Protein 1
Amino acid sequence: MPRTRRKPRTRVVAAISAVSALGLLVGCSGGGERTGGGRKDGKVTISMGLYGVMGFKETGLLDKYMEENPDVVVEAEIAGDEQTYYTALQTHLAAGSGLKDIQGIEIGRAKELVDTQKDKFADLSGVKGTDHFLPWKQSQVTSGDGKVIGLGTDIGPMAVCYRKDKFEEAGLPTDRDEVAKLWEGDWAKYVAVGERFKEGAKGDKVAFMDSASGLFNAMIYGGPQQFYDKEGELVYADNPVVKDAWKLASKAATSDLTAKLRQFQPGWDPGLANGTFATAVCPAWMLAHISEKAGEANKGKWDVAKAPKGANWGGSFLGVMEDSPVKKEAQELVAWLTAPEQQAFLFQKQSLFPSSRTALESPEVAGAKSEYFNDAPIGEIFGAAAREVPEEQVLGRKDGTIKDIFSQGLTLIESQNKSPDDAWNTTDERVKKAVG
Amino acid sequence: MATSTSSPQDRTTGTGPPPGTDPGVKRRRRGALLHRLDVKGAPYAFIAPFFVVFAAFSFYPLIYTSWISLHRVELASLDFMEWVGFDNYLALVRDERFWNALGNTITIGVLSTVPQLLMALGLAHLLNYRLRGSTFFRVASLTPYATSVGAAALVFTMLFERDFGMINWGLSLFGFEHLDWENNKWAAQAAISVIVIWRWTGYNALLYLAAMQAIPRDRYEAAAIDGASRWQQFTKVTVPGIRSTIVFTIVLSTIGATQLFGEPLIFGQGPNGVTGGADNQYQTLGLLLYEEGWKSYQMGRAATVAWAMFLLLILVFVVQRLVKRFVARKA
């Protein structure tokens, strides 16, 4: 009878849908693994969470480590964008799951992690063979009580990249030593050279620099403190370093010396290729980007000169999680990856500038020249800049966010015709809101 | 069904002799209970998947968001929530960024919705004619809708670029030089509206077309006999004939406009996308929420924006109902 047959079927369907509903609920509450790594059959698996182009996987360093240590398997997961990576890292830290054994730390986040999450990271201060870093690099990830949550990978010492051909057209010297002499010791001289460039340039199609924020960044990242003081208080409003940088950058913006572009945003890349600006303040890691975007056609037109003052923009660290089941092995891997030899190797492969003092002094770094940039002695230029950075640089919790807000403040002057005072007030208000 | 015939019997056994004596009665009672459960419970089991998913992914987040919005919470320390009551809401109402974002959401919404629906109406009217390769044109008008927001917005962002963009190159032929689309408030909002219009016009046109094809031909014939021109046929026969579809598309576009997020985010590129321009000149409510949550990492304030958006939608709904009732009473 169809009636009796239908009944069990409805029951089965009902049961299935109820069970699947339950399954959905259970699925949500899953998880519980501590970190990615573990031990199995005498093999140690170490997981890494990285972002951007840190170079470890790309250059085959991880493979090399696995070859030298046959009982170790390294699994690296790389997020393209650091912002996405950090958001995920924060949720993983808060939830206590989904973490890797080794996590990359960007300099803009270092302070926040030291302040709020240092218990979750293993202390690396005692790891053997890690006393070769630049002093200011390791101070950025050292907590008040001396705990070190990461080991330094690369840094971003700054120089000025400039177009030789545009300088020649404007009647300025083109040799990199003479160019560096023009602005030696003072960023104000750099802006003064800009005025000379503007007078001498033929036509008004070429601006002296790409953006006012590039100049601003270079100036503040040469100082011992930027937006915060050691106690973690916001001091940007009274910090002479920030005030001077703002004044000079807004002067450059209002006297039409900039191409009104934003670095790494649309318009900037074709600007590098087509020469809409003659100079850009460039950290070492930017060289790879410039040579790629400006292309083979502009080889030899770009050159690198020493910046008025040494400064550092960017850089990363590798930290090990305290809860990792393979903590010791992960620490060894981190120490190896950040060792002088590997840093020098990454510099040659990816122009990631070493944070290790020993690597800086090695001949393959100190004597390095860039073919694309007219054989500029980049090892020497950036190495000198790295050594000029103050011994201790105070970082703040929201450095990355505040830097973006200041860049936008300068855009208000450059592209929206706001007065520097108005723009400062807006910026001030925004910083307070973002931090508050 | 099988149920209705047996249920009176069940009831009589329920009120029968004391339980536990006869195993036959026991079995029958268990059977009856299972049967009752089957009858009363099965429908709930059938609808359970939807409601469980809804509760887990919509209702619970909604409630939890409101709880978060009453606290000061940062993403880095989610376990640590500081009770602040309605401070977040008060701060939001006093924050000019909120009113700016609300204004931008409305202006971009109008700029994108009105031309989009008018163009869709015209396009549908044209597609409704008998023409060669009509299927091709109908499919072609739907392709923008099938493109992802990201791809479309990226391409348009390149087209609207200041120095080397194709649109500025085209304008320069007419003597307009270097229009800075991103930094000019109305230019930026117009550019974002263009992306929205490009993506959604064809979709709406197909909805209109489907409705138009349901209008009986004899109405047009009658109108033609009465001497109505093509235009009069369009305004007097076609538009009234698809009125309910027009209302539907207006509702859909309005919802879409209040949620506008991806296009301006990509249009601004990087930090400027999150804040909707250096001067917040095209920051929508969706972007403000994102800025609070994923730039400042202030979860409490982001949740507050989310709830403010929700309350605004409810307000719009209530106002719309009141107006409707008022109009109906007048009529």
Note: The longest helix of chain A spans residues 2-28.
Protein 2
Amino acid sequence: MTAQGQPLYEARQISKSYGSVAALIDVSFALYPGEVVGLVGDNGAGKSTLVKVLSGVHAPDSGELFLDGVRRHWKSPHEAIQAGVETLYQDAGLAPHLTIGSNVFLGREKLRPGLLGRLGFLAQQEMEREALADLERVGIAVPPSNRTVSELSGGQRQAVAIGRAVSWARKVILLDEPTNHLGARQSVEVLSVIKAARDKGLGVVFISHTLPHVLEVTNRIVVLRLGRVVRDAPTAEFDAESLLGTITGLIDGA
Amino acid sequence: MSSVTDKPAKPASTAVAASPGRLRSLLTNQQFLLLVALAALVAYFTSRDSVFISSGEVATMLATFSELILMAVGETYVIITGGIDLSVGATAGFAGVVAAFAMRDLLAGHSPEALVLTVGTVICAAVGVGIGLVNAILMNWARLVPFVATLITLGAATGMSLVLTGGAPIGADAAAINLAAARIGPLPYLALIVLVIVAVCWVYLHLSRYGRYTFAIGSNAFAARAAGINVRRHTTSVYVLSGLLAGLTGMVFYMQLGSGAPSSGNGAELPAIAAVVIGGVSLFGGMGRLTGTILGALILTVVQSGLIIANVSPNYSQVAIAICIAIAASLQALRPQNRSQT
């Protein structure tokens, strides 16, 4: 382990099955402040399931979660968000018919001041304005308009989703395939966003099939295979070849 | 037309490439097309017979519109979440019948008319809310899809109306009919109340957090849940709202008929759903405007009344509605709206 002290977010002995399919078996995993941990594995290795457990979408069948050393049982994603854990879900995190601003503020809408606000009326223009400012601050350029997400390109959508996660996160960011759909230049942008979040002391979980990105941005890499952790080691101990071998099982994990 | 765009995204409409400004918003604006269609229909029927815009005929159309629009508004909320509520007509009929029993007894006891109608309205609302809750329970706990859940309550409510009444209308409340026809200025009293309810629902759908969640769930239920929205609770409330508005429609039926007729809601869900579809609300959820539904309901009302004025047999009016749906739905299908829901 590279980092010292108490983990920011920790999973102990997590198991999760879908019917007779065991998606996660005794997975233990720790994330320290100011650290980027890569979560890699072949399709079906359990990466997305682990993210959904960590983000409160699915409750694990067994095992424990600790945030800042406190045992947590997420009953809904809402509770995890409230506690400071933000998530970017692979291809599924945005409402395509809503505008960029509405998506960035989804579930955290700003209401108008006074009586109208108490009646539930939205401060829409304020949200659109702040959303663009938030995304720019994070370092993501999106078209400055009230466009709906369905009118954006795949890369722009991904940028909005990442910007939303990073601008709201207070402790942990879980990024499931954040560089999917992105061109080379946009990927570089996203990787620098991740580094900036890390430098602010957030803990980042980075899931990707693009191994050069994983090797570039992470401090530590956890390799999953068929629902189990087969390797958990500092990134410096891997190169492209050994990482691929560990993922596919050609090289035995530690 | 859409071959050249300045961005890699699929264009939201064929007009984007031509001119990103006003032309786009006008040509893709279903509301604008509906308004043109409505104006054309009114002009045509008026040219056939100027009786069409007489105050008597307008009052008749407002009555028809009032019977239709509340259900269509509830249906709009439901369809925007990606669901469907088939039970609205049966709910209206059943609520009207249940309330009619209570109102008949109250009238027999010489209670004042205002009290009678207030009690009736409360009962209609309660019955509607109850059926909406049953729909939500069938969906959330029995895990039925909306189509099946609301098909069950459609059947149950229709059947219960017949069981309770033996098929005959309940009550004979001439005072209610007079009150329904009474006017404030040019507007019938009843239509005015209905329009106020519609206006509140319109504002809430498009400007409030409640409306935002309704769209978000229909657009991407997973994203809504992941963003911390309680999807189950919100969906429940939307079906309860639809039930409530359908129940109140039962009171509208009662006011117009002076009795609770078990058959009054039979098939009434079809024009309600038709108004929503004509109004351009996507049956896939996440997209639509309540003004579209209102225009859709107005078009249906005008067509129905116009055909009668034009001496076309009322039997054809169902066919005319079908043609309206076909035209509106084809226009929608021609719009290449990007539907990238995952």
Note: The radius of gyration of chain B is 21 Å.
